[in-house]
Amino acid sequence: MELIFQNVWLVPFFPFLASILLGLGLFFFPRSIKKFRRICSFLSITFLSIGMLLSFYFFWQQITGSPIHRYLWSWIVYKNIILEIGYLLDPLTSIMLVLVTTVAVMVMIYSDNYMFYDEGYIKFFCYLSLFTASMLGLILSPNLLQVYVFWELVGMCSYLLIGFWFTRPSAANACQKAFVTNRIGDFGLLLGILGFYWITGSFDFQQLSKRFFELLNSNQINLIFSTCCALFLFLGPVAKSAQFPLHIWLPDAMEGPTPISALIHAATMVAAGIFLVARMFPLFQMLPFVMIIISWIGAITALLGATIALAQKDLKKGLAYSTMSQLGYMMLALGIGSYKAGLFHLITHAYSKALLFLGSGSVIHSMEPIVGYHPNKSQNMIFMGGLRQYMPITAISFLFGTLSLCGIPPFACFWSKDEILVNSWLYLPVLGSIAFFTASLTAFYMFRIYFLTFEGDFRGHFYNDSKKLSSISIWGNLTFDEEQYKLEKKPFLYPKEASNIMLFPLIILTIPTLFIGFLGIVFQENKMNFDFLSYCLTLSLNSFNYINSENFLEFLLNSLPSIIIAFFGILIVFYLYGPTNNLYLKKNNQKIVKNRSNIDVIFFNFFSFIYNWSYYRGYIDGFYDFVFVKSLRFLVRIISFMDRWIIDGIINGIGIFSFFGGETLKYLEGGRISYYLFFLVFCMFLFFLYSYII
């Protein structure tokens, strides 16, 4: 038994080994290895599946009472400085291992068919395995130094995968944007790590929190300096988990292949920031000001992401802003001290969002042969609609993910999100109000995405005809002679359901989307309220005093406001985008135009503002572009002008004057007596002429 726990490092090692083997094969046999594409994907999936099985085993051992396992080796020893590497296995680690490996295996199986005809198929699986191994290594890290190493590996892999189709300019710009934005956060993280090492003399999670607590109790710490170090440390998760104001890279990251979007948004890159805040939770709890900052950053991010998602046309970018909003919920929960609720929502959201992204990938995959392969067409919901009748399994699975994210019982996210809503309201009503309002917006934009994509009539046939497209409502109600239009055009193509290989992960992910939320349900045992997830997390390294006074019935009663708010958002989106309303507008179009009231004008202006806010991403990208890009370029031009025409101008002027002066004297100092006599006579003539004039 002990031997198995000593080899926990095998969990990240297997996908890392798969990445190395594929990379070596591509390097030494670039042509012949392409004949064995299926074998390469099978190798990656098999190795990661072994890691997944090991993760389940370690998880089972942890929840059945196995102690925390911690193994360290000396890496650098110099005088009194000892830097160690190793791994840490506690319930939090085991839960995250299961989460990452299960989602990653589903993504790999899905990618086998999704990326099969791509020229970079093998390279994709090489990057994917390395990405997963880096995240698993980060989860197992026992100290901040090792976390930082894997943190950078995760960032490097995201750069490679976001820019996988780098020949597309938008993809190249997106990966650079993600890389630069995360470098800002990583620099802050490095400063925070070094600051806490200077304070406590340790990188180890347990020792760091323990020493900091002792120094704080004995008043041997500068509280302002410690708070600054904590905020610098928090800057890393802000960038990695796409929190305001470093969230701008996340929607552009949709330029990568859809399976990567699923992995980034569900279980790897954005989850890394939440995991680090959870791991450092005991330390952050000792600094109340930092906890306030974390909670408000989370609340602002949740609200901002939800408002920008309201009118997105791009399917994947709508889901990306949804991820940003849900990550804000997780950060809000951690900031108010609701440790269990934040991690619970991380788990439930991961499976729901993986399901949604893989479902969107199936939709895009079926739309590409009809409208083209450019994201502006294949991901544009304006060209979709009515896909439920062509892709029923994808539609049902996507609906399950939508219901979960909206917080509708009994789906997974209901249990975690409602706990965050209740706890945030009890902590501070202002934060609770923001959280509840964001919940209604979530229901609105998620069902808007579902209605535009899967309901109504198919609109993909009119992607090349802007005049015809402008006369079609989002529900496909045609206001022209459709039969005549069909006669003028080529035979129509219609979307098709994805292959069985792509449908398999969708069906499997619906299971945790439905049932994993029950891990956090409160049951009564021996007159004590008990839930499984709290029990697991209490056993972890970051043990916390969690007292849940609610029983199951009280929880359901307290959840009624959030359910009502979610249904209210769904009713609004159904009223605005539903078929009944559109049919009514179609029949009474002339009456509405003639009798347009002031209320209609107000609503029109309001919706125009919402659309512009969403289209221009809250004007934040434009603000950053003006302040950091255009202003910097303008300053560089001024400095370049000064350097070229003033500083260099003076130096060059002296040089030119010396050059022409030397050229002139060259002819006067030729060594010939006749020139000297001529110059002497000429000067005497000028002298006498001047004297005569005076």
Automatic annotation (TrEMBL):
GO MF term list: NADH dehydrogenase (ubiquinone) activity; NADH dehydrogenase activity; quinone binding
> What domain of life does the UniProt record list for this protein's source?
Eukaryota
Transmembrane intervals:
6-29, 41-60, 96-115, 121-140, 147-166, 178-200, 221-239, 259-277, 289-311, 327-347, 393-414, 426-447, 501-523, 530-547, 559-577, 598-614, 634-661, 673-693
Q: Where in the cell is it found?
A: Plastid, Chloroplast thylakoid membrane
Instruction: Quickly give the catalysed reaction.
Output: a plastoquinone + NADPH + (n+1) H(+)(in) = a plastoquinol + NADP(+) + n H(+)(out); a plastoquinone + NADH + (n+1) H(+)(in) = a plastoquinol + NAD(+) + n H(+)(out)
- Thylakoid among the record's keywords? yes
InterPro entries tied to this protein: NADH_UbQ_OxRdtase_chlpt_su5_C (IPR002128), NADHpl_OxRdtase_5_subgr (IPR018393), ND/Mrp_TM (IPR001750), NU5C-like (IPR003945), Proton_antipo_N (IPR001516)
What is the membrane topology listed in the Swiss-Prot or TrEMBL record?
Answer: Multi-pass membrane protein
Q: EC number(s) in its UniProt entry?
A: 7.1.1.-
The residue ranges of the NADH:ubiquinone/plastoquinone oxidoreductase chloroplast chain 5 C-terminal domain are: 487-643
Q: Which UniProt keywords apply?
A: Chloroplast, Membrane, NAD, NADP, Plastid, Plastoquinone, Quinone, Thylakoid, Translocase, Transmembrane, Transmembrane helix, Transport
**Which cellular component terms (GO) are annotated to the entry?**
chloroplast thylakoid membrane
- Which part of the chain is the NADH:quinone oxidoreductase/Mrp antiporter transmembrane domain? 141-441
Under Pfam families, the record lists:
Proton_antipo_C (PF01010), Proton_antipo_M (PF00361), Proton_antipo_N (PF00662)
Domain NADH-Ubiquinone oxidoreductase (complex I) chain 5 N-terminal: from-to ranges: 75-125
What broad class describes the main subcellular location of this protein? plastid
Q: Which Gene3D superfamilies match?
A: 1.20.5.2700
Biological process (GO) annotations held by this record are: ATP synthesis coupled electron transport; electron transport coupled proton transport
Q: What class of enzyme is it?
A: translocase
What's the family? Answer: Belongs to the complex I subunit 5 family.
Q: Self-association or partners: how does it assemble? A: NDH is composed of at least 16 different subunits, 5 of which are encoded in the nucleus.
Summary of the function given for this chain in its UniProt record = NDH shuttles electrons from NAD(P)H:plastoquinone, via FMN and iron-sulfur (Fe-S) centers, to quinones in the photosynthetic chain and possibly in a chloroplast respiratory chain. The immediate electron acceptor for the enzyme in this species is believed to be plastoquinone. Couples the redox reaction to proton translocation, and thus conserves the redox energy in a proton gradient.
PANTHER family in the cross-refs? NADH-UBIQUINONE OXIDOREDUCTASE CHAIN 5 (PTHR42829)
Spell out the protein name for this chain: NAD(P)H-quinone oxidoreductase subunit 5, chloroplastic
